[in-house]
Give the backbone structure.
Amino acid sequence: QVHLVESGGGVVQPGRSLRLSCEASGFSFSKYGMHWVRQAPGKGLEWVMFVSYDGAYMKNADSVQGRFTISRDNSKNTLYLEMNTLRPEDTAVYYCAKEKAENGSWVFDSWGQGTLVTVSS
Amino acid sequence: AIQMTQSPSSLSASVGDRVTITCRASQGIRNDLGWYQQKPGKGPKLLIYAAFNLQSGVPSRFSGSASGTEFTLTISSLQPEDVATYYCLQDYNYPRTFGQGTKVEIK
């Protein structure tokens, strides 16, 4: 059974940094692309970043361009999100999600429970 | 970026009612669209992929359809456990974009 567990959230001051982790189990982590998706309090879902199965290819939302970095360590079955120069508008629950190819579509077939990041002075 | 316009933002229906939720894409996305269900305090769950295909384990009362750039999620007979917020997500290109969400409640 696929299991994704995010950690590393907390309260941080504007301008500071934070690193989130997503520990994966129950599947061959090194074979799948992974995403980060966030949800501000009371708001909808916002896609943040993607990394390919081997870490060679990445994509990001404009809102985090130049501030956030996605990476993975396949030897540790762990996905990371390095967040720098944090802003109050980055306050959200951050979810990691596993990607899978289905009928030519790229679906997010498994999600974690999320970790809350609060950016506040 | 492709914009996904989802409607309605909320709805209230009785148990057993047929419920429809719509997403319209700002440009053609083929059938590269999924529907996700999110219950309070939980991560989202995949219901439908590639516009029409039911994810394994999802009840058959959920179905998806498409016409051009308009996509529809239908719950054929609303059940109490379907209370949740539903989102569409286009996987045609990057950045991935979600609809604004539809909160479904029981009347």
